[in-house]
């Protein structure tokens, strides 16, 4: 059977679009984790300053501050500083919302999706005073017994202030 030229071109374009979408989705890997997996970081004894930002795609202040965390990751790339962007979106929204968001923003920091729908069962792991509001950020270095929890949007100036005064880090 002979396939008309314009149909063949259309089929090739469709196959190309489908394969390119698959390739893009593979580049934005966002593991879905449980609290036990996040505890690996929370309990780390390494002399590393962790910055765990809790955010969601539906939270406007969260989205506005993400570039600041990306800049920190780049700025402290040669120091023991690790930025984790932990999405609190629903796991069912991973492919529809979270991965497209990560792709559009070209995020370089580690992005994880915490799939723990019963917030009351794990909120205290971050800070007993946390109301559950977003954005929220936990800074810690367990080796140096340093910890700071902030439940508000952060500016680049505040981030630098916290890292330099509380954690003695210089860019």
Automatic annotation (TrEMBL):
<feature type="domain" description="Thioredoxin">
    <location>
        <begin position="12"/>
        <end position="155"/>
    </location>
</feature>
<dbReference type="InterPro" id="IPR013766">
    <property type="entry name" value="Thioredoxin_domain"/>
</dbReference>
<keyword id="KW-0732">Signal</keyword>
<keyword id="KW-1015">Disulfide bond</keyword>
<dbReference type="GO" id="GO:0030313">
    <property type="term" value="C:cell envelope"/>
</dbReference>
<keyword id="KW-0201">Cytochrome c-type biogenesis</keyword>
<feature type="signal peptide">
    <location>
        <begin position="1"/>
        <end position="25"/>
    </location>
</feature>
<protein>
    <submittedName>
        <fullName>Redoxin domain-containing protein</fullName>
    </submittedName>
</protein>
<dbReference type="GO" id="GO:0016209">
    <property type="term" value="F:antioxidant activity"/>
</dbReference>
<dbReference type="InterPro" id="IPR036249">
    <property type="entry name" value="Thioredoxin-like_sf"/>
</dbReference>
<dbReference type="InterPro" id="IPR000866">
    <property type="entry name" value="AhpC/TSA"/>
</dbReference>
<keyword id="KW-0676">Redox-active center</keyword>
<dbReference type="GO" id="GO:0017004">
    <property type="term" value="P:cytochrome complex assembly"/>
</dbReference>
<dbReference type="Pfam" id="PF00578">
    <property type="entry name" value="AhpC-TSA"/>
</dbReference>
<dbReference type="InterPro" id="IPR050553">
    <property type="entry name" value="Thioredoxin_ResA/DsbE_sf"/>
</dbReference>
<dbReference type="GO" id="GO:0016491">
    <property type="term" value="F:oxidoreductase activity"/>
</dbReference>
């Amino acid at each position: 059977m002979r396939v008309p030229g314009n149909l063949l071109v259309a089929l090739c374009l469709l196959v190309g679009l489908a394969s390119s979408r698959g390739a893009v989705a593979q580049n934005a890997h966002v593991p879905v984790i449980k609290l036990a997996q996040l505890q690996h970081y929370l309990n780390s004894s390494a002399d590393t300053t962790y910055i765990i930002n809790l955010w969601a795609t539906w939270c406007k202040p969260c989205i506005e501050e993400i570039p600041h965390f990306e800049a920190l990751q780049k700025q402290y790339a040669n120091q023991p500083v690790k930025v984790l962007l932990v999405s609190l979106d629903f796991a069912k929204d991973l492919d529809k919302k979270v991965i497209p968001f990560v792709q559009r923003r070209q995020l370089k920091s580690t992005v994880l999706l915490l799939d723990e729908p019963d917030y009351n069962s794990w909120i205290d792991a971050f800070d007993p005073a946390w109301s559950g509001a977003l954005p929220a950020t936990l800074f810690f270095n367990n080796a140096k017994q340093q910890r700071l929890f902030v439940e508000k949007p952060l500016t680049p100036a505040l981030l630098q202030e916290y890292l330099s005064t509380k954690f003695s880090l210089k860019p």
